[in-house]
């Protein structure tokens, strides 16, 4: 077995050996300000000022604990995906009949629908990124947005808008290509696509969803990969694009389960990305064997071995042992470490304290420093 404690090397560009997915627990001040904005006692300008102050605080905290990459914690968002997708041309949000089903719980009701041709002309999150960039200093600012596949996975395509799904996927890819360029022009050099859609391939429940979509598994895998690859094609050489593949994260629970095997060859050998953030924090994620499909020596595999769903710290030696196991399938210098997901994919957040959140991230940094010298 590879002795990773002695041969791993640090990296100077993202993804970093100790990294993070992105979202952070919303502070009580943010939650209260959002309530006040909703009931009309706080203006949009006042809310944004509070957001700016709280984001500045948590960015400084990320620097203080030793992270090389900082995010805005998605503090301006209610949802990790809907907020961005509703900003695309041709997409509208609406109050759905029911929320998204998770294990033993359901989110609040919300949905998106495609009412016109998809495009990207401008987006409020460009200004959100510019603010993060302005306070990042010599740290790397990471922007997180939902994968283009999420518009298909969560969006209701209204009748008559598109003649074919191929045309729809093409327009989504082109809109994302414009979005990627816009974030780059705003200064972004580290962009992450978050994606729960791949989880439909991991279990029998997911396979039933594919049938409900009226798609075939092989065709949908190819469509997902093609949309992503078209979106990231011709990106600037100094822009790092990663993807976080998730099984759902809401109030410390989950929506999907199953290992990566059924889509492993497509994910690990068919996507033109610089890194993959992968959930491996519990038995729902399966083993490391699918990593055998990693053939690109430049693809970084970020192992989500530290859970963001509860505050108790995993034994460090156990995490290092699991890194050793993964290193049997992919070179140790292509491996990084992070929490398995963000701490607050929605504004409600997971069931742990802010201090426990920081301790989790310190734990990731400490282990990474021991493994990659």
From TrEMBL:
<dbReference type="GO" id="GO:0032259">
    <property type="term" value="P:methylation"/>
</dbReference>
<protein>
    <submittedName>
        <fullName>5-methyltetrahydropteroyltriglutamate--homocysteine methyltransferase</fullName>
        <ecNumber>2.1.1.14</ecNumber>
    </submittedName>
</protein>
<dbReference type="GO" id="GO:0009086">
    <property type="term" value="P:methionine biosynthetic process"/>
</dbReference>
<keyword id="KW-0489">Methyltransferase</keyword>
<dbReference type="Pfam" id="PF01717">
    <property type="entry name" value="Meth_synt_2"/>
</dbReference>
<dbReference type="GO" id="GO:0008270">
    <property type="term" value="F:zinc ion binding"/>
</dbReference>
<keyword id="KW-0808">Transferase</keyword>
<dbReference type="InterPro" id="IPR002629">
    <property type="entry name" value="Met_Synth_C/arc"/>
</dbReference>
<dbReference type="InterPro" id="IPR038071">
    <property type="entry name" value="UROD/MetE-like_sf"/>
</dbReference>
<dbReference type="GO" id="GO:0003871">
    <property type="term" value="F:5-methyltetrahydropteroyltriglutamate-homocysteine S-methyltransferase activity"/>
</dbReference>
<feature type="domain" description="Cobalamin-independent methionine synthase MetE C-terminal/archaeal">
    <location>
        <begin position="20"/>
        <end position="347"/>
    </location>
</feature>
């Amino acid at each position: 077995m590879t002795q990773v404690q002695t041969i791993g090397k640090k990296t100077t560009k993202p993804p970093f050996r100790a990294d993070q997915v992105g979202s952070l627990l919303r502070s009580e001040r943010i939650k209260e300000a959002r309530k006040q904005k909703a009931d009309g006692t706080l203006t949009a300008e006042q809310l944004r000022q509070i957001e700016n102050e709280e984001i500045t605080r948590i960015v400084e905290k990320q620097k203080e604990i030793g992270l090389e990459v900082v995010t805005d914690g998605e503090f301006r968002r209610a949802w990790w995906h809907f907020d961005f997708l509703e900003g695309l041309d041709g997409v509208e949000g609406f109050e759905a009949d029911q929320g998204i089903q998770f294990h033993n719980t359901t989110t609040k009701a919300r949905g998106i629908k495609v009412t016109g041709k998809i495009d990207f002309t401008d987006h409020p999150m460009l200004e959100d990124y510019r603010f993060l960039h302005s306070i990042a200093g010599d740290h790397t600012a990471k922007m997180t947005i939902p994968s283009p596949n999420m518009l298909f996975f969560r969006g209701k395509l209204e009748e008559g808008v598109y003649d074919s799904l191929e045309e729809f996927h093409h327009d989504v890819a082109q809109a994302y290509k414009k979005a990627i360029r816009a974030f780059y022009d705003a200064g972004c050099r580290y962009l992450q696509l978050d994606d729960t859609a791949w989880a439909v391939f991991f279990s029998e429940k997911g396979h039933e969803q594919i049938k409900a979509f009226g798609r075939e598994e092989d065709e949908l895998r190819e469509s997902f990969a093609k949309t992503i690859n078209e979106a990231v094609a011709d990106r600037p050489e100094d822009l790092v694009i990663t993807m976080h593949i998730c099984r759902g994260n809401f109030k410390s629970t989950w929506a999907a389960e199953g290992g990566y095997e059924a889509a492993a060859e497509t994910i690990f050998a068919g996507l033109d990305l610089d890194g993959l953030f992968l959930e491996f924090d519990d038995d729902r994620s399966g083993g490391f064997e699918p990593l055998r499909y990693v053939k690109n020596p430049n693809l970084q595999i970020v192992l989500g071995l530290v859970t963001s769903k509860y505050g108790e710290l995993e034994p460090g030696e156990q995490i290092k042992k699991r890194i050793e196991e993964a290193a049997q399938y992919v070179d140790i210098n292509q491996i990084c470490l992070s929490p398995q997901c963000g701490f607050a994919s929605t504004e409600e957040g997971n069931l742990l304290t802010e201090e426990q959140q920081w301790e989790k991230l310190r734990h990731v940094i400490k282990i990474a420093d021991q493994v990659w010298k």
